[in-house]
Amino acid sequence: MKTVLTKEQVMTVLKKVFSYLVIAGALVAGFAIGRFTQSYPPVKEANPYQAIHSIKNVSIAVNESNELMLIDRSTGKYQMYSNRIYQNASSNE
After folding, report:
1. DSSP-based three-state secondary structure for 59
2. What is the C-alpha separation between 15 and 90, in angstroms, rounded?
3. What is the DSSP letter of 90?
């Protein structure tokens, strides 16, 4: 018994094989990207105010735009910590 493959049968088999190859390729690419990003961790930025634990070292201020600032007393450098400070939760702003 000879079986003759038609063009339609070959195309359906090739479509299935191609779809499985695409899925396998996506999985391999995902694992490769995960392995690549694991070997290059993000660089942590140093926070200059992370070690300050005393009010003797910093001043806390609110400027005219209602922005919170921490000011290092020794250097005079400041850092903004929020964009807006609300005076009262029940205000009608």
Report:
1. strand
2. 64
3. T
Tens-place pLDDT, residues 8-18: 999 999 999 99
The reported pLDDT for the residue numbered 93 is 44
Backbone angles phi, psi at 32, to 5 degrees: -65, -40
Q: Can you count the helices (H) and strands (E) in the chain?
A: 1, 3
Buried b (16+ CB within 10 A) or exposed e, 4-43: eeeeeeeeeeeeeeeeeeeeeeeeeeeeeeeeeeeeeeee
Neighbours of 59 (CB within 10 A): 12
Q: pTM score, two decimals?
A: 0.41
